[in-house]
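note to self: dont lose this again. the chain is below, predicted strucutre after it. 708 aa total, dont forget to put it in the shared folder this time
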Amino acid sequence: MKNNNSDFLLEIGTEELPASEIGHFPVQLKELFEKMLSKQLIEHGHIKAFHAPRRLVIFIEKIADYQKESTEVVAGPPKELAFNSEGKPTAQLLGFLKSKNAKMEDVKFNTKNNKDYIFLERTLKAEKTAKLLACEIPAIMAELHSAKSMIWDASGFSFSRPIRWIMCLIGNKPLIFKFGNILSSNRTYIDIFDTKGSTIKTTEAYFNKLKRNKIIIDAEQRKAEILKYSDKTLKHYRGYTCEYNKNLLAEVVNIVESPTVFVGSFDKNYLRLPGIVITVSMAKHQRIFPVILNGKLTNKFIAVINNPKASLKIVMRNYESVLEARLKDAMFFIEEDSRISFESRTEQLKNIVFLKGLGTLYDKTKRIMNIAEFLSSTLGIAKGEYSIKLKKAAGLLKVDLTTNMVGEFPSLEGIMGKLYAEQSGLDSDISEAIYEHYLPKLQEDALPKTQIGITCSIADKIDNITGCFLINAKPSGNYDPYALRRQSWAIIKIIISHKLKFSLKALILQNLNAYGKNDNKIKEEIEQFFSERCYNFFRQTYSYDLVNAVVASEWDDIYSVYDRIEQLNAIRDTQDFEKTRAVIERTNNILKGAKIKIAGNVDTNLLEHDLEKKLWDIYINGKENISKLIDSKDYKRATSEYGRLFFEPMHKLFDNVLVNAENEDIRLNRLTILDNINKLYTLKIADLSQITIEKTKKINPSTHSCLE
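---
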């Protein structure tokens, strides 16, 4: 049978999809189709997935008309049950053959676990691709998932937005299947005014139809078109350039499929407003971009609409009038906010609930002040003028939430606080801290730079996390409404970037005390949460086993975790590292297998063998030096010294002395020696028994020994 191929096209027509979710669907579609085609043994060429606000498209080049033939192995009964003592087939074998429509000559034998079994091997007929796809595509569509979905008809299927049509072609023929109450066809719809639709006969005709109607389904191409026409439009204004916020640009790309660009303007008097207020107003209400001249904001803007047939003069006037109304409101809000002194607004925080069960923002401010003071004292920076400024800044962090501007533009929290603080004549360290304490909001954001900003940022975030755990609003699966994972990530990032050395457990306890809660269970839950976030953070850069080893030892001091991982990673391929790993692994294995509780000190009177006496002497004479190296954070040298001291004598002990002696006192004494040697390293550096041995250089003990 000759297996020809055709192009395949699927278009899922929807109501306008959310800009924040639409980009995930092409990735899902492509992965699901690749998985399905592989499973069904269907050969194909390139798979391309596209998205536009009202359509998701998958295009597959040269998909085979038939799947490949395959061989199926069917297991049967054991040979001893298939044939009787005379070698004739039993009723069980005959029944098996009948059920599989097979004959005796089809029977084959296979041995498994020293036992012979019957099996059949048969070639499966290749199914037609179109038939398989008609069954598989509805299942693929049902697997598409989004953060929020809805049910729009009686079928019960859910999706991000209602699906209005499905167009599907294989070659020049429509592929018919049903999803919910929608039957696929070879008809597409250009826009919301197109009620009749258009019949599409080939995949080429489909792409030509889109092109004629200026619909671009490739998101990267849409972005390129927007940038190209923005630059082209601004050529009429010499020296003017458009300032693109990448997140806003990504959103605009996802809400237009036929982008049309124009330049608008607004009254120059509004340039008296802070530039950030103008740009945020543009972005929030109209998704338009500011225009810059010589590094300064101008009274012009770039807008992108989804209608190439619209009258640009009318649309432009509408955009300009809406923007001016918003800027007029912003100017009014700033004037109204300035009537009340910034510092006197603190009392208004008593009227704003932080979270149900966690008091008001005034209460939160008091806790932040408490935590910030504790943290700065721990870091050794709570001195003189700094302490005065820190207390002042911490008390004003949330004050801008009482203003009209932040009420209208929540994304300006911290930004307006800084502006109003500056207008009030407050010290620049204080105004900067008000802004910085929200940083970073996103992973790619800058981190706080000033010492007060750093301290306040950590204090605010740890209070958010602790509070949410207290009211059981902690993350679970994909559920993280208060972005606690992101905030914990931010705390870890700040600590590492600024080399902050303090106990996170102590900070959590201080925060719980500030809430008036002495709940050990909650404390342990928060600690476990941070331990997991710490592991996930470092796992992005380092191997899982090294991160496991260090975090298992001690994660409380986050910067110490980073420092230990960095230093151990640098010497991981050395013999010194492998010697230490081997000592830790062997002592761990023996200690885990011990059936008695190991406690107390080593009794030197119970040391019978010269090897154990010398090993204990090495420990006594060497532990102080290793402890000093650990205390000085020189984990490389501590690892090298530990391996040099204990590798050879430890192996000699294991080769010549029975650790688990029959005498219980001697056995306990020897286990205590191993426990002391193990903990000297594992308690403060890493549990290297968790290192994957294939990734290290395995070595054998040399003839040289420090025992000799």
